Amino acid sequence: MSGRLNLLAGLAFKHIALRKRQTLVAISGVAVGVGFFLAVSALMIGSQTDFIKTLIDAAPHIIISDELRSPTPQPATLAYRGGAVAIRHQKARTEVRGLKDWQEILRAVDDMPGAIGSPSLTGGITLRLGGREEAIGLVGVEPGIEAKVSTIEDNLRVGRLRDLETVQGGLIIGEDLAQRMGLQMGDVVGATSAVGGTRTLRIVGLFKRGAGQLSASSGYVLLREAQSVLGRPFIINRIGVRLADPYAADDVAARLERRFGYKAESWQERSADFLSLLVTRNVIMYSVVSAILLVASFGIYTAVSTSVADKVRDIAILRSVGFSEGDLQLTFVIEGLALAAVGIMLGWLLGYGLMTILGSLDFSINGEHQSLPLDRSARQYAIAAAASLASGVLAAWLPARKAARVDPVDILRSAA
């Protein structure tokens, strides 16, 4: 069996060697297709991975808020539940916002392996300086815990998160807001809340420009400072949760919501629109790069078809001496596989070179130098190789079927 296979492989390689120009064209086509497949997929998958990582790290993996998925039933509705009575125009019961028994929720979070919960209080205040006013969302945090849950510390241009503990009335805002109000590090600004509380706060840190909502409309203070400014002592309305496995956020959020009733929103839920766009983007990307590989396989189809057309007499002789249809098909399929294999190896080198060039490009964004995120994993090389081999086998098999169906009697009679 091995001797027969060696003979068929020898015939295939002889066909390849005799047609050097067509062989070079077929190999070049596969190499270019594989190389650009690797470059495009590395760029697209790398940017997607970087984007998802940014989504995961930008905020806690789960945010438990004092919101409810459905409104709380009013007492009148509960009193006449199921009765033939329609209750209208009742006065809604006023409820105090905030997470009830938040210490228990926090303990439940901290009891989960690898999970950390950070309590916070959010609310709106107005900053005033020299007749200029700016409304911001104030967030009160515990710096030591918050630094483990979010990436606030990484987004600071100047200052440190723990300065909120060491400076009385410390406030961290974004560079854009500070520029609009003419504020600098150490400046004092007045703060007024909706309940009429007025305080003076001192700038102890600035967020970088382009740090999302942090720089646009948020300010961070110590938790007890926020409770004082907002007039809500001992109350929190949000718990941020960071997990050891970010992709388990959906399941963990669902369990916490069922247990405590409060809305627990995972990062997947908050970013559902973006994630659906990534799926569409991937479909488009793989369609385009697959088309590149399919076009590259046409060179193999042309080379094998030409080989079949030129070797009709030789095929007839092989059939007459006992070679089966399967043997002839295998011969030309081996020819296509050989062309694809050489093209894949050269394509890997081309793709590696293109990725090296793309990786060396440097861009300046918001004053910071960044390089293109690329996915250089072996998975992309394997996908390119598998797709190219499959295309090569298909491209070689189509003309090989024609060769296997040659009637040796008719060919030899016409030749005579």
Tell me what the structure shows.
This protein has helices spanning 2-18, 20-58, 75-79, 102-110, 143-149, 163-166, 175-181, 213-217, 223-229, 249-260, 267-270, 272-296, 298-310, 312-320, 325-360, 378-404, 408-415; strands spanning 62-65, 116-129, 132-141, 156-158, 170-174, 188-193, 198-207, 218-222, 238-242, 264-266, 362-365, 368-371. With 416 residues, it is α+β, with helices and mostly antiparallel strands. The chain has two domains: 2-56 and 275-415, no CATH class; 62-69 and 94-242, no CATH class. Strands 1, 2, 3, 4, 5, 6, 7, 8, 9 and 10 form a ten-stranded mixed β-sheet that branches. A two-stranded antiparallel ribbon has the order 11-12. The mean pLDDT is 79. Residues 23-258 form the MacB-like periplasmic core domain. It comes from Stakelama marina. It is found in: Cell membrane. The chain crosses the membrane at residues 24-45, 283-309, 330-358, 378-398.
List the helices and strands and how they pair.
Blueprint: H1 2-18, H2 20-58, E1 62-65, H3 75-79, H4 102-110, E2 116-129, E3 132-141, H5 143-149, E4 156-158, H6 163-166, E5 170-174, H7 175-181, E6 188-193, E7 198-207, H8 213-217, E8 218-222, H9 223-229, E9 238-242, H10 249-260, E10 264-266, H11 267-270, H12 272-296, H13 298-310, H14 312-320, H15 325-360, E11 362-365, E12 368-371, H16 378-404, H17 408-415
Parallel strand pairs: 3-8, 5-7
Antiparallel strand pairs: 1-9, 1-10, 2-3, 2-6, 2-9, 4-7, 6-7, 11-12
Helix pairs in contact: 1-15, 2-12, 2-13, 2-15, 2-16, 12-16, 13-15, 13-16, 14-17, 15-16
Transmembrane segments: 24-45, 283-309, 330-358, 378-398
Subcellular location: Cell membrane
Main location: membrane
